[in-house]
Amino acid sequence: MRPFFLGFLIALALVALAAFGAVQTGAVPARGDEKPGALEKWAAHTSLNATIAREAPKPPYPYGPPTGADFVHAANLYVQNCAVCHGTANSTPTAIARGFSIEPPQFGKHGVADDPEGETYWKIEHGIRFTGMPAYNQSLDEKSIWQLTYFMKHLPELPANARAIWEDPSLAASATPGPVPSPGAEGGHDHGASPLPSGGPT
Ligand code: HEC
Q1: Which residues form the signal peptide (predicted)?
Q2: Measuring from each residue's beta carbon to the nearest atom of ligand 1, which residues come in under 6 Å?
Q3: C-alpha 104 to ligand 1 mean position (Å)
């Protein structure tokens, strides 16, 4: 029993040493232009799906059904916060979008209308680890994230004035994201559709 246990400990130590060595020598991939391997992809997807199944909001949702004003507000937010990576109706991928090893889907081509709203809400709120998808709970309030969620869900069938912005982002309220107050400080603040708060870029 004892020699077996000792052998087990030595094997464990060797595995730990090999892992440490791989990190120390740079054998663990660190480049941003290297595609993730099959094992990494499987682990990330499986864990993401399990996390979403556990944590994503289930109907009935706290906001909705969305109004025309919600869609317009979301279209502005989308252009300011999302278009740089996900594009708009007729855009080609930006330099930023092309640089990710995990490519941001271009929603003008492949949308998420099939996904339940709760799943899309969760992704916008928390972001997706190991990808470029940011968490927006640091910068947008809950209502704005729901508005964006419904916007994503209804992309193929937006009301005309929201669709106009989706098709021509130069119509959006502001082309660049401004600094936003922390969500706790100003609940319900109407980010984006109104002029930037003072102190923002002019
Ligand atoms: C810096 C780049 C970047 C920005 C900005 C960004 N995203 Fe993403 N997003 C990504 C990447 C990369 C993925 C792919 C993640 C993956 O494959 O798991 C993604 C995935 C998603 C998905 C899941 C798509 C699917 O097919 O399941 C949704 C929904 C999404 N983003 C919405 C948004 C919204 C809404 C915004 C703006 C509020 C936004 N993203 C801003 C990079 C970005």
Answers
A1: 1-18
A2: 81-82, 84-86, 100, 102, 104-105, 112, 120, 123-124, 128, 131-134, 136, 148, 152
A3: 6
